[in-house]
Amino acid sequence: MRKSIVFTIVTGVNILLLALLAVHAHFSRISAASERLERAELVRTLQLTDLCLFTEARYTRHPAMSDRFAPFQDHPGAMEHFPSGSLVTPPIKRIHEHSP
Amino acid sequence: MSTPLNRHSNILDFALSSLLRRKSKNFSLLVVYTLIVFVIASLIFFVQALKREAAQILKEAPDMVVQRMVAGRHDLIPVAYGEQISAIRGVTAVSPRLWGYYYDQVFGANYTLLVPEKNLLEPGSIMIGPGVARNQRIQAGDMLALKTSRNIPLLLTVQDLYPSSSELISSDLIVLSAEDFQTMFNLPAGQVTDLAVTVANPREQVTVAAKIAELFPDTRPILKSEMLRTYDSLFEWRGGMIVVVLAVAVLSFIIFAWDKATGLSAEERKEIGILKSIGWETSDVLLLKFWEGIVVSLTAFLVGVVLAYGHVFFFSAALFEHALKGWSVIYPQFKLTPVIDVYQLTVLFFLTVLPYTAATIIPAWLSATVPPDAAMRS
Fold first, then answer.
1. ipTM score for this prediction
2. Could you give the domains of chain B?
3. Cα distance from A77 to chain B (closest Cα, Å)?
4. pLDDT given for residue B378 in this prediction
């Protein structure tokens, strides 16, 4: 078989795989809808404000509730020392926040 | 019959043979290139899925949370504030929230202790997240001992566990009754952690927040829209580790492109000279190099993206786990709902496939414009 045909088949299979993954993503979203509703219901019942992504520090466990200067709250010259602190951005500037 | 399709097919055949002649070099190039696309695509899939999840489930978060600030820090808020806030026009309900953190010295884990709005639990009973159950090796019906602020052990019975599908929000939760929370932390009378405010009309939320800030200058109202935006910008590309991953990937890619763009090897120049001397046009040579570039970059892009999808959505982004876990003892084991962001993948395609192909063609064009004998002699 010609090499160009082999390449076309391999590329075609890859594109087909990508298309199948898009279909998988679509159906996964549909099948996960009920679980997502359960999670949303739990958020409503428990009045949660944050995702549980990083449990190592207060300001990474509840970034939406923390201060913008959270990594430096322990003392003025404190340096960031939690790895997740380098992944989480500070909370967005809030409308009604006074400067610390 | 010579059709444009035949011409491309023949040149592609030649390009593939040419790549296979330098098998080891081109294969290692393909592997590293695929790895770069894999890392960037994994990051895109992971961040987009997480942001989508946060946006969907945090829609049910309180409309507004009012915190009290003392000396620049979040402090306990008097319940009396809530009574005055509920009198503001537009406020439907104000409910005090009791929550806090508990550091477990034995396991070195941080738990979030929370009292539900409605009395779901009897004193002495708790509901725990799957992360707490894993960490403590307990299940429904077992006892959990926590130390109170007076250093007295408080024995609590696990009534039930939150399902593993809710791990992304409940992994480190210990939900308990208000009485047990009071026993644990001994809060001053009439004080709570913060207040959840419900505003019937979403358009009035900002006005209500302004009124609260005016009425109680020592408070900080946090709107639901602000909570959602916090998660929308959580993994911004400027974030420390993300910028490092991206910088490494981009630098590696620049090294490839540089290697290609700085010129062809003597063997490749000689090959171009021979092709031209046997009658190939400059356009044919450029087409050959174009196909060489496309074979490597398109294959790397497609394989990299497919592998990244599997990594993030079938294997829960296992390679990122250590970076995400940091020093946390409790790490949620969650499966993200797949999201394919076509826009971001298109950008990735144009940032990887096109520059590499261009970097392959330009030096070939420079060599192909040289007379064949000069190219062969060089």
1. 0.85
2. 4-57+234-377 (no CATH), 77-192 (2.40.40.20)
3. 15
4. 61
